[in-house]
Amino acid sequence: PVSIALRVAIDMLSGLNAAHDLHDDQNLPVNLVHRDVSPQNVLVGQDGIARITDFGVARAASRLTATRVGQLKGKIAYMAPEQAAGTEELDRRADVFSSGIVIWEALAQKRLFKAENEAATLSRVITEPVPLLFQITPQVSKEVSGVVMRALERDRDKRFPTCAAFADALEAAGALKDKVATPRELAAYVNEVMGQEISQQRDNVRAWLAHSEPTGSAVPELPAGVVPS
Q: In whole angstroms, what is the distance from residue 13 CA to residue 16 CA?
């Protein structure tokens, strides 16, 4: 549902903005760029909160490392055009574009740039026009569509300057017509869609733990004053 997708999107953007605003021990900005924003790296919890994870290819300006010529880090279908073109001077606006792809796909329920091979995908990322979201999926309002399309501007100066600005615009646009789900509604949706599977996984883990525990093992004596957790 659109309202659920918007809730996930806003949480994801809030997490990215927190990472972008990180400061080091000297209170200097780290200038972190995730560089791998994709659906696989967005975790939706049973608590109704979505989180951005896997900063494995993230890079901070304070600890730049050499990258081999022609090497691309991240998933090509979710790259900003400047990243796909090999630009070294990436900033948080690259993550704004990648987030725009994730949100466009979540609302349209189809891939945006993914092609049959990496070369074709790369070409699409750099040159192919982005279809207007409300024309692809009429249940999305023109207001929300306009916000997402701004994030997908190939000229990064025309995008939202921060993920916080993107999140604020998305929430304001969603509130007009589409509605933004609350964390409680997102939690209920997760339980509706995945609840039975999650319960089964928990039962499997408990059974495995019970089976793997050694039998007859003596319980170690705790020091005085220590309470077992």
A: 5
Q: Are strands 42-44 and 32-33 parallel, antiparallel or unpaired?
A: unpaired
Residue with tokens 């951005």: 52
The pTM (predicted TM-score) of the whole model is 0.83
Residue 175 corresponds to which tokens in the numbers above? 């509130």
Q: Which helix (H) or strand (E) holds 143?
A: helix 142-151
36 catalytic, yes or no?
Answer: yes
- Asked if 15 and 32 touch (Cβ cutoff 8 Å), the reply is no
Mean pLDDT over each residue of the chain, to the nearest integer: 88
Instruction: Report the greatest alpha carbon distance in the chain.
Output: 69
Is 8 within 8 Å of 50 (Cβ atoms)? yes
Q: How many residues does the chain have?
A: 229
SS3 51: strand
Q: What pLDDT digit, counting tens, does each position of 151-195 carry?
A: 999 999 999 999 999 999 999 999 998 799 999 999 999 999 988
- What is the spatial distance between Cα 151 and Cα 4, in angstroms, rounded to a whole number? 19
C-alpha 34/C-alpha 167 separation (Å) is 17
Q: In whole angstroms, what is the distance from residue 72 CA to residue 153 CA?
A: 21
Provide the pLDDT for residue 21: 95
Q: Which of 11, 21, 25, 36 is catalytic?
A: 36
